[in-house]
Amino acid sequence: MPQDFSGQNLRGRNFKGQNLTGANFSYADIRGANFNNAILIGANFSKAKAGLQRRWAFGLVTFSLVLSPYIGVFSAIAGVIVANLFISENINEYTIIPGAITLIILAVFFIVTIHQGLEAALVAAAAAVAGAAAVAGAAAAAAAVLATVAVAATVTAAGVAAVAGAVAGAAAGVAAVLATAAVPVAVVVAWAGTVAVAAAVAVAWAGTVAGAVVLLSFYVAWRALAGDEKQNFVRKIAVFFASTGGTNFCNANLTDADFTGATLKCTKFTGANLTRTRFYEAKKLLLARVGKSILDPLPIRTLLVTGNGRNKSYINANLRGANLIGADLSGANLKGANISDATFQGANLETANLTLTEAIGTDFTRAQMTGACVEAWNIESNTKLDNVDCRFIYLLEYPKPGTDDRERRPSSGEFAPGEFTKLFQEVLTTVDLIFRNGVDWKAFTAAFQKVQVENEDTELTIAILYDL
Q1: 3-state SS record for the chain
Q2: How far is Cα 204 from Cα 198, in angstroms, rounded to an integer?
Q3: What is the pLDDT of residues 294-342, one digit of tens each?
Q4: Which of 164, 236, 339, 449 is the most buried (most CB within 10 A)?
Q5: Residue among 341, 247, 336, 335 at smallest CA distance from 294
Q6: CA dist 236 → 71, 110, 297, 383 (Å)
Q7: Dihedral pair phi/psi, residue 336, rounded to 5°
Q8: What is the distance between the alpha carbons of residues 345 and 353, in angstroms, rounded to a whole number?
Q9: Do the beta carbons of residue 61 and residue 275 sit within 8 Å?
């Protein structure tokens, strides 16, 4: 009999390697619980609360607060270095070159970070530094470029540290982000004030650069938490650290498990079997560590949580084992997608493009498929088509040349109830042997004998069709 843990306080409990098939964890507090390598087939985690225990969350917030002053100081130091590049006791023609080049590199770094993400920005900044070094010829210019390289590296490191600190705090909670954000700003102001005593011009530049780095960090953190794919690199780093000490489902068998409405921030699913695992309306799944699973691409993760893929494109997507019960995929483009072992029970697939989809073992029970295109889709006898609601389908994605014929089935009228299922079940039990230059009876006999051996308990009949 399946065990019942519903509504219980299971924080920090160790279920490692246990067989908990069909267990009920609904509404349970499983923060910090360890399900590593556990068998959780068909387990119910609906409305459960996963994530960090309070002591771990407190530790992350404390770490963020301790790190914040250093981030602020690094930002201010970077600003001072940039300012010094514009100031010299001996004014000469090269004085402004190092600072100008540095600001150009910083501008490239900031712009690319905002539009393409931090990972792309680091590559772009490195390319800009390399380009500046290649162009430099004179010794003075070469020295300026070397200074530029050092500054760019310092500012880049400060930006990365600031972004990581802000995001790590945010992953632990919005309150932690706000607390973390206040500290570096205060430190930057204090540092700038100190430098102002020594040099007013340096203060102005230091405050500008340091403030810009901090603001950029907050922007990147905000966009990463909002699900911006361009900032996926930052979010993954933050989630990696924030999920330490969180609920652990690593390498667990979660086949057919149900996380409907569960809170899953700071939860680890790395290496878990997520075949037909249900994540409908799960909360904070964006802040879970998912490894290279089906949950990794954000569009797929969003689809599994919302169930809304209406008119969206999932061309060549990996939806193997996806749980899309009742999902709205009307008009969706699933061309070439792998949907094997997935479940679309009761889903709306009207006018969807299923061309070239891999649908081995897929469950379409009670799905709505009127107007769908099934050209060259790959189905087998274990594909479930029971009670499919379908009035007509198309066998071609595009009309035949010079016509508007997409090979509608039936060619006129509509399928009678159950006729669609019957049609494709007959197709699945048919073996076609095509001879283009007359019947090769020797080849036919060999092929027929092979089919007989593979289906020894099935009554076989032969129908020969001639193309006259």
Answers
A1: CCCECCCCECCCCECCCCECCCCECCCCECCCCECCCCECCCCECCCCECCCCHHHHHHHHHHHHHHHHHHHHHHHHHHHHHHHCCCCCCCCCCCHHHHHHHHHHHHHHHHHHHHHCHHHHHHHHHHHHHHHHHHCCCHHHHHHHHHHHHHHHHHHHHHHHHHHHHHHHHHHCHHHHHHHHHHHHHHHHHHHHHHHHHCHHHHHHHHHHHHHHHHHHHHHHHHHHCCCHHHHHHHHHHHHHHCCCCCECCCCECCCCECCCCECCCCECCCCECCCCECCCCECHHHCECCCCCCCCHHHHHHHHHCECCCCECCCCECCCCECCCCECCCCECCCCECCCCECCCCECCCCECCCCECCCCECCCCECCCCECCCCECCCCCECCCCECCCEECCCCCCCCCCCCCEECCCCCCCCCHHHHHHHHHHCCCCCCCECECCHHHHHHHHHHHHHHCCCCCCCCCCCCCC
A2: 12
A3: 998 989 999 999 999 999 999 999 999 999 999 999 999 999 999 999 9
A4: 339
A5: 341
A6: 20, 20, 12, 36
A7: 75, 5
A8: 17
A9: no
Structure-token pair, residue 429:
């039990």
Amino acid at 50: A
Query: Token pair for residue 283?
Result: 């909360």
Total count of residues recorded for the chain: 468
Degrees, nearest 5: CA angle 202-102-146: 105
Structure tokens at 367: 């799905």
In whole angstroms, what is the distance from residue 317 CA to residue 333 CA?
Answer: 10
Report the distance separating Cα 110 and Cα 200, nearest Å.
25
Q: Residue with structure tokens 């390399």?
A: 130
Write the single-letter amino acid at 366: R
Distance CA 54, CA 174 (A): 15
Residue type, 410: P
Q: Which one has a higher pLDDT value, 121 or 196?
A: 121
pLDDT in tens, 5-62: 999 999 999 999 999 999 999 999 999 999 999 999 999 999 999 988 765 555 555 5
- Backbone phi and psi for residue 263, each to the nearest 5 degrees, phi listed first: -95, 120
Residue 64, token pair as written in the block: 């963020």
Query: In this structure, how many other beta carbons lie within 10 angstroms of the beta carbon of residue 358?
Result: 19
